Amino acid sequence: MTVQYKHIGTRRPLIEGREKVTGRTRFVADLQLPGTVYGRPILSPYAHAKITEIDKSEAEALPGVIAVLTAADLPTRDKVIRSRMTATLAKEAVHFVGQPVVLVVAENMMIAEDAVDLVYIDYEPLPAVTNLLTAIEHSSPAVWPNGIPKDESDMGSIHGGGGDDDEATKPTPKYNNIHAENHFERGDITAGFAAADVIIEREYTCNIVHQGYIEPHAAVTVPSPLDDSIDVYAAVQGKFWLRDDLAKLLDLPLHKVRVHSVDVGGGFGAKYGILDGLGASAAVALGRPVKIILSRSDDFLTTMPAPAIHLRVKTGAKQDGTITAIQMEAFCDNGVYFGWAQGWLIGFACGGYYKCDNLQIDVWEVLTHKPPIGAYRAPAMPQGTFALESNIDDMAAALGIAPFDFRRQNAAEPGDPAGNGKPWRTIGFKQCLDALADHPLIANPNLQANEGVGIAIAGWGTNVGPADATCRVDTDGSVVLQTGQVDLTSNSSAFVLIVAESMGVSPSDVVVVNTDTTGAFAPGSGGSQVTYSVAGAVRDAADSAAQQVREIAADMLEAAAADIELIDGQVQVRGVPDKALSLAQVAQNARSKRGGQGPIVGDGKSALPEPSPAASVHLVKVHVDPVSGKVTPRHYVCAQDVGKAINPLLVEGQMHGGMAQGLGFALHEAMIYDENGQLLTGSFLDYDLPQSDQVPTLEAIMVENPSPISPFGMRGVGEPPIIGGAAAVANAIRQAVGVRPTELPIRAEHVWQARL
Amino acid sequence: MTVQYKHIGTRRPLIEGREKVTGRTRFVADLQLPGTVYGRPILSPYAHAKITEIDKSEAEALPGVIAVLTAADLPTRDKVIRSRMTATLAKEAVHFVGQPVVLVVAENMMIAEDAVDLVYIDYEPLPAVTNLLTAIEHSSPAVWPNGIPKDESDMGSIHGGGGDDDEATKPTPKYNNIHAENHFERGDITAGFAAADVIIEREYTCNIVHQGYIEPHAAVTVPSPLDDSIDVYAAVQGKFWLRDDLAKLLDLPLHKVRVHSVDVGGGFGAKYGILDGLGASAAVALGRPVKIILSRSDDFLTTMPAPAIHLRVKTGAKQDGTITAIQMEAFCDNGVYFGWAQGWLIGFACGGYYKCDNLQIDVWEVLTHKPPIGAYRAPAMPQGTFALESNIDDMAAALGIAPFDFRRQNAAEPGDPAGNGKPWRTIGFKQCLDALADHPLIANPNLQANEGVGIAIAGWGTNVGPADATCRVDTDGSVVLQTGQVDLTSNSSAFVLIVAESMGVSPSDVVVVNTDTTGAFAPGSGGSQVTYSVAGAVRDAADSAAQQVREIAADMLEAAAADIELIDGQVQVRGVPDKALSLAQVAQNARSKRGGQGPIVGDGKSALPEPSPAASVHLVKVHVDPVSGKVTPRHYVCAQDVGKAINPLLVEGQMHGGMAQGLGFALHEAMIYDENGQLLTGSFLDYDLPQSDQVPTLEAIMVENPSPISPFGMRGVGEPPIIGGAAAVANAIRQAVGVRPTELPIRAEHVWQARL
Q: Do the Cβ atoms of B467 and A606 come within 8 Å?
């Protein structure tokens, strides 16, 4: 049965679109609060060193300098930190180039910059290990000899304050500098390879990639003039998470840290509050609003990019196309801390792409003296998929089966196991493949010389969490929805459609208010979960408000509530068009009538039992210049199982953006460090973000394969579009010129060399 | 049955007390927003005049002047105004001394002040009528020849834009310049007087009294840099009312006017948004934040004090003390607009003080060329009660019955009619009198020479309106309550007790957040209604949240929800002390468990069917200096029926404040205008606000006579304490020296003269 909606599923322009395209959106850096002072962090120039002296006297003497703060002046990680993201100042040692050591605070940004040059910090360099594959050798120095610092321990000290529990109880490890490991197995991998007619084995390398947001990290904290509470204005994806961290760091009750989410100028998993701890600590210490904006270079040095990953993939298949064994080993470069469960993510998803009885995936998270890695849109999945789908592509070629047909034959379906061995309850690989079967790039690619079409499938578990929402009807008939979300991707532009559907109003009469952390709750805006997690609460809040409207109107119109219908802002008795009220009249009654039903306020809650995984299939057509090896994408099609697109314009935008970023992984982006841990690509001159003229036609095909779990059949949509691009480009190159790329990004010189 | 409470009824220090007594509270004038410009209104020096020319060229040329705005530049009352309070600039004529004519806006306050002197306004004076009793004569000029301007009409024009409907259809009136009239009758007033043994008739005069708040009116409006919405930071008692007016004035949808209520430095009915319309209009016109702070003198000139009232009271009684007739006629000086239903208020309450079969009350609201009057704590009731209770006191003396006994014999009880003829459902005069029967001032006053004890009863209908509230439990176990109230009198310090009671937490773990006008709804903070109106919503929101806690904990503890109890922040199975969780653990589960019950969020609504009237009895002991006539209060006792004091410390504070203000009415305060409508007492040097050393010992006796209507049996408490003081002082003077004061304030020279 297809439900007919009036508003849900319509392409409604984004609420904040006009402000964004006209440059009127205010970001954190645009906030000017009275009495503000400006912080500038001084970053470590060493990958590993002891801090032997900090002389701040000359800087402190500079007129306009408010304070030169060190770890002695501010709360440190002694008190912190669940997330390990919130930066504090290094105390005894530094562990990566870019680690904040001192925070200079001055009356304005220029003075702060001048003062930076007047702070003298002496270091005693210590042995550093910066290369992923070197770090795992037992001959390399240990990044954390006593284990990575625990949540509660002091990461400012040289050796940490004691290792994680699992670290301490671990037997002598196979590799050195391993923080975490994940092992997935099903069937008998040896038997699987024994049964294979063809075995393909290859290694793949992926470089560090930065999220490349346009807005550098910025933080504004305002201490209350009334009490010891603070207001934090943050471009943050997880405001409750940040709030909890700051409360812990500052020893404040939760409600005294009010995080206001400010428009985010690009998140992509990177905006979870790196600077806010420093800014909030300084604001509390100085009793003044503190603003910190990272320069682009500092942002590259001290933030949290996607990890370098080295992978080995070995697959086996029978001549008939049955895949008999999949084996993957991956080493993820964590940098100096934890790895965001990227090992689990690779194993869970990549282990569930294909029907295959015998599987083994081993992932090792490796510590190096580099900045901590962070989440980047579908963490580790572009890399894992690049490796697996390159290998699968080679297998199809070896078996003489068309790559598209080979995927269609083997792609997992509901009931097949994911990487963790549990069956996918719902997964739409087949539906996406079906949607592309007749696409010209498959059915009639019409390739010229040195052109090829690559395909890759891409799966993603997505996330979910509880949320609540409140819906009130105001006396002018407008409907105000309060949520706890961070509106990272214009989720509000979907929610107004849901409310409009329930309340029988125009979406333009729905106002979305995202309250601060004393208000409604929602999970962080990451893991493709926000619209998915919050929509049910929004719908229930609106349905509850609509029911209250029916009951009040029933009294006013002397009819039964069941006979009242809400249409176009009118509240009327079914079949009696004369008996009607405006929604405004009903709200006025509710907010004024003594002994009435009281104001219209509906709340809704959502706590879905599980996420609804999202599949996608990527097709990229490329041209390879045979002289230079230069790869030019010509056309990029992504078919993605979105379950139900609440606002297709919004979903399409998400897909377009993810596809463009996937091309960045494929052909452009890499943070290159030298052997001393010095970043060689710390600006947008050196770091090659794809430009708009380097992105081909993007074709987003929304496949609506409803999830049985969620309201409206929705699925998370944010992350899948980034996953498959690199693999599809690599496979297109193989088809175009017969070269198998094994490193991301794929560089013209490598393609050229491989053709020799 | 007496309900036992753990928190409700405890004397808990006010939440914001520390900030207020240490001077750290931020008021509107303390808000410094970037880019702010400063507005200063130029006020009319004439009570009635035509504006013939405004030359702003010289002022505009002054460096730092942003704009010199007239009615031509800003929206005027063409579009407004339900409340008639929101000031706009005069267009063609002025109608009172103090009416805003021009708004100068400059980069700072000093420049704005300088520019005021450079604006040349020419007026053509017109005949003005400023005296209440002159105005009602048909020979006087009509203030509004075509009737007072309608809500929608243009009050800036000379003759208004058309009269109120009831004005237009009125027959030739008995008096001139009457805006509204109220007539209350029961029984046969002629027969009542015919049956009387004693008749007392006298006239009384009450001068204009100002609310005397410490914080002058101030307004800050910030236009959004994103869209055409505005944020209004207002020290306002009715934020939704203000919001609606501003939206209408500025042609904005309601949600685009976000009113944030800022701490109010004294409201007393005066803070309903006089300046905000001007400030908001200018902010929108100029696209910059605009701040207006009235000087004390301008505040006296242009704001809305309590009316002058002239009253005639005639009562008749039998020798046995039965009151046979009460007749009152009152003329209220509205100034230039409407009169806040003060006529109705006098008649309703004063007509219900006593058992009396024959009653007639006629109240006339009179227009004069003076500032519009406003609401002042229990509007018109100190004046009406002064007149009636003086007369009743003389009657008791004439009958030879002790004043206390005479009241006890005749005071109304439930079932007796109020002034509108409907029976009081609940009224506590008797309970208050009973509570004072053994008080030394009654039982053993021990009076010295020239001392006397006066008594007065005082009743008040109070108000009520619908409200909603939301209650969430955060992951640290704190409880966040959202309401729409303006916390004028620390109502939050009562609400935390209600939430603590329901949720089994400490009141210090309850956080009250008063959202802006896009959030929860509550009636204005006036009419003694806020705690009364909102408490039920607060209780229901907390009860709902508590029930959710029980259900989640029941799952976690594998018990039945009915067996779960919430005590001291713990959630435990009754009788099984080992099976317990902290409230924090339950909230963490609720905000994280997939497939759980979802975040804990309870909403509550309240729409009580009627207010619960509040009675009080006032006893004042005075000393009169026989040489000078100077009256010194020695002791003031008020017994008030509070129904149930949620936080007695808060109620007591309300009573103390009201009693002090009642003494201001009695002995100190008057705004004196000359015959041209010029204010002679426009500063705190000339306007005699009582000083703390002029206030005697204040004894507040809270009588808890539960209302059958409300949660916990509460009643409104804010207004009754101001009502009876003036009457009690007058009656004490009569007892002390035999003089019957007939004018408020009671001046030493009048007492002295009367003794001659």
A: no
